[in-house]
Amino acid sequence: MALLEVRDLSVRFVRKSEPTVSAVDGVSFDVHPGSTVGLVGESGCGKSVTSLAIMGLLPGRGTEVTGSVNLEGSELLRLSRREFDRRRGKDLGMVFQDPLTSLNPVVPIGLQISEVIERHRGLSRRDASREAAKLLERVGIPDPDRRLKEYSHQLSGGMRQRALIAMALACEPRLLIADEPTTALDVTIQAQILTLLKELVAETGTALIMITHDLGVVAGMCDEVNVLYAGRIVERAQRHELFSQPRHPYTAGLMASVPRLDSPRGQRLAPIEGSVADNIPWEGGCAFSPRCGNALAVCRERAPELETVEQGRLLRCHNPIGAAEMERAHD
Amino acid sequence: MTDSSRTITGAETSPVGTDPADTLVEIDDLRVHFPIKRGIVLDRTVGHVYAVDGVSLRVGRGETYGLVGESGCGKSTLGKAVLRLERPTGGSIRFDGTDMARMSGEPLRRMRRRMQMVFQDTLSSLDPRQSVESLLVEGMRAHGLDRDGKSTERELRELLSSVGLPASALRKYPHEFSGGQRQRIGIARALAVRPDLVVADEPVSALDVSVQAQVLNLLEDLQEEFGLTYLVIAHDLAVVRHVARRIGVMYLGGLVEESDSDVLYEQPLHPYTRALLSAVPVPEPEVEDQRERILLSGDLPSPAAPPTGCRFHTRCPWRQPTRCDSERPELRDVGGGHRVACHYAEEIRDGIITPNSVEGNSSAGVS
Ligand SMILES: Nc1ncnc2c1ncn2[C@@H]1O[C@H](COP(=O)(O)OP(=O)(O)OP(=O)(O)O)[C@@H](O)[C@H]1O
Ligand SMILES: Nc1ncnc2c1ncn2[C@@H]1O[C@H](COP(=O)(O)OP(=O)(O)OP(=O)(O)O)[C@@H](O)[C@H]1O
Ligand code: SF4
Ligand SMILES: [Mg+2]
Ligand SMILES: [Mg+2]
């Protein structure tokens, strides 16, 4: 059974004097214990809003959230703010891109972590503090006893991100959401943090939702990958299948756009044309159609549905890559 | 051909720049130190940030030189020093044979036309109330390139079409464009004064990958069209490897390795380069599953108090008990223009010494 079931999740920002923004538009996926699910896509496609909705962290005013987020049989979207806070501390952990904004600058990090442990695991202050030191050590912070007394600004970016991960782990969450956890870090530090996250998933059985715009990170981390475009999932597959044969023109376009470390110099990139500014609303057809090399007339008339096209693969496209070949193979 | 005898410093076998006429930029022992001031009136210097500390390199005419390294290693400072936007503390920079350090006034101003800079988001630093046309004309006017209205107008249209924008963009304002389009305008602005050298500092790092690829292709096309020389600065090694023929890797204010782009990828010799290469994710699960990461311990030391000896020794998995912590390795040619600043480059290359375990190292080098 899935640990988390997200069904038809939609988030709209309704502002007076501004057009309504449909940031997330009918997103559904499952997360199983011990597995890593990726959400990948370019800026503004709705990755962060999806994670904030799951965590109950969206602003209440002017935000319409519909659909269902079910964690082990209980519906999160119907919880009161208070109940959500309790639940969040106990079962859900989150790691953001910028740890500085999510750590309290005037409280030593040790105290921030041990307070969480005290509250959620009912330990004494002394025991909680000892647990906090263990956690810091676990996430690779050397000299944890000294670090416990330091403030977030005294730590480097990589150390801060580790402290934040330690805090997210403090109550042994069943589900961890990491939103661009390494985007602000140098690659050698990124390698440390990603290795740490992978070990945690393998050792504790925590489920992980990994949000990133970096296809390389996805290729190394995720079991299943959801590609988002303009608030909707356009393709979902297991990572090996997705990378060896991307079927959605957007997924394939992304892959052809990234310069690869292991490709010889001088190999020309094949970028997707235009930018997200060229999108059309899903109501009028496929949002990607103005940029899509595979677009047919129907793409400008009717939005494609998300359909299962083969075992383990979902696709939202009227004219996916390889469709003609596959039909021929079936004849 | 593995000659492990050490050549003394100096680049006698370097394939670039051996002919001075082919060298556009020649940097020799460049140092840029920023004073750290303390006190109420801010006049007491209590130390220095060694942002760039002894870098020598050459950029050949018409080539792309890529400078890569992690945050704070001094890439931007070096780029700015080349354009004299930052005054060097020591060393020299020769541009097309002329020593820039000794230039000032009108000759410096005239020289500056020939070198332009493209930033991460060039337009965000410009006046938002200026139309694209006036942004572009401004630079031309400053250098007396805007002679009569008609030909300027035609030139601007051609320029915009070179960077893939319609002529209608001239009447618009920066905020009316997407990030990728703004970067195209920034590039057009640099090219408007017909430079020889373009220093591009993180030209694509603020862009979505699809748009990033468009801009990278554009830079390539423009180089061909206008015979430009590029100094491309980026933290993303995959980007640098894609565009540059020659790559220099920086660590804490110094160059630690420099070679041809393919050689750097196929046979990195400096331990830091090896760690960097091993850390860059590759979008292919099979490759990712089989990769061995060289995990570095700890964080970057402060550039205000760089470690003694080899600046990388506090985090280096190959560190040896002698020389590493006491003697600063010079950048030396180990053959074919492949330059490395490591005492043990040959031993590492030939597998004579191997990395120490990361665990044993894990508390070393943490600031
Ligand atoms: N509080 C808000 N009010 C109004 N619009 C919002 C709000 N938060 C997000 N949006 C809009 O919702 C859309 C999705 O934003 P989201 O932050 O989820 O993107 P993302 O995929 O995380 O992008 P990035 O890669 O840049 O982080 C964007 O168009 C954004 O401008
Ligand atoms: N004007 C200045 N005054 C004092 N210190 C400076 C100044 N400019 C840069 N520095 C310091 O010099 C060092 C090198 O900075 P620089 O901006 O060149 O690094 P970088 O390699 O470009 O990093 P990034 O990848 O983050 O852009 C840093 O420690 C920085 O804080
Ligand atoms: S000189 Fe020593 S510390 Fe520096 S890179 Fe080489 S082996 Fe490592
Ligand atoms: Mg986001
Ligand atoms: Mg910089």
UniProtKB/TrEMBL annotation, chain A:
Gene3D superfamilies with a match to the protein in the record: P-loop containing nucleotide triphosphate hydrolases
Principal location class: membrane
MF-aspect GO terms: ATP binding; ATP hydrolysis activity
Protein location: Cell membrane
Keyword Transmembrane helix recorded: no
One cellular component term from this protein's GO annotations in UniProt: plasma membrane
Entry keywords, A to Z: ATP-binding, Cell membrane, Membrane, Nucleotide-binding, Transport
PROSITE patterns listed in its UniProt record: ABC_TRANSPORTER_1, ABC_TRANSPORTER_2
GO annotation, biological process: peptide transport
Family listed: Belongs to the ABC transporter superfamily.
Name of the protein: Peptide/nickel transport system ATP-binding protein
Organism: Actinopolyspora mzabensis
Automatic annotation (TrEMBL), chain B:
Keywords associated with the record: ATP-binding, Nucleotide-binding, Transport
Single GO biological process annotation from the record: transmembrane transport
Protein's UniProt keywords contain Translocase: no
Family assignment from sequence similarity: Belongs to the ABC transporter superfamily.
Presence of the UniProt keyword Secreted in the record: no
Region feature Disordered, mapped onto this chain: 1-20
PROSITE patterns tied to this protein: ABC_TRANSPORTER_1, ABC_TRANSPORTER_2
Species of origin: Actinopolyspora mzabensis
Protein name according to UniProt: Peptide/nickel transport system ATP-binding protein
NCBIfam families cross-referenced by the UniProt entry: oligo_HPY (TIGR01727)
Pfam families in UniProt: ABC_tran (PF00005), oligo_HPY (PF08352)
Biased composition (Polar residues): 1-16
The organism's taxonomic lineage, starting at the top: Bacteria, Bacillati, Actinomycetota, Actinomycetes, Actinopolysporales
